[in-house]
Amino acid sequence: MEKIFLDQTQSPDTAALQAALGDCYRLYEELLEMTNRFDGKWTFYKGWSYKVFHESKALCYIAPGNECFEVNMAIREDEKAALLKDDLSDDVEEMVKHAEKAAEGYALKFLVRNKMSFNRLKRVLALIIPRRLA
After folding, report:
1. What is the pLDDT of residue 11?
2. What secondary structure does DSSP assign to the chain, as a single string?
3. At 128, phi and psi to the nearest 5?
4. How much of the chain, in percent, has pLDDT values that exceed 70?
5. Which of 1, 40, 43, 133 could form a disulfide with 65 if both were Cys (CB 3.0 to 4.6 A apart)?
6. Which pLDDT tens digit goes with each residue over 1-51?
7. Alpha-carbon gap, residue 42 to 83, rounded angstroms
């Protein structure tokens, strides 16, 4: 996905997000509601992303696109093991199994274009969020 907010001098406001995300804006709002116990801030690296974090540790980064958004996160070893024990959809299970190890954990990327793709992300977050807040 190509980032669309590229002006480093101004982070996206609600009107710009609504226009860019279109029907996906309601899914973006649902994601923010799911993560409302975390802090959040806009950050710029080759385009604007919204960082969701707790005690300076990132849960995920949300990058708005045209009619979609991308969510990037790094999961920890114990989170990966817990996810693989859960009843995930086949495509998400494969993504978790084959996630590349990085310094922060195992990298996962979700492209949200509709409710079905959002539900895959929600399933993963439902397992990870309580662990991160414990």
Report:
1. 96
2. -------TT----HHHHHHHHGGGHHHHHHHHHHTTTSEEEEEESSSEEEEEEETTEEEEEEEEETTEEEEEEEE-HHHHHHHHHS---HHHHHHHHTPPEETTEEEEEEEESSHHHHHHHHHHHHHHHHHHH-
3. -85, -40
4. 100
5. 1
6. 889 999 999 999 999 999 999 999 999 999 999 999 999 999 999 999 999
7. 28
Cα-based distances in Å from 106 to 29, 67, 68, 72, 83 = 26, 27, 23, 10, 12
CB 106 within 8 Å of CB 100 = yes
Which residues, other chains included, contact 6 with Cβ-Cβ below 8 Å and sequence gap of 6+? 46, 47, 48
Entry pTM: 0.93
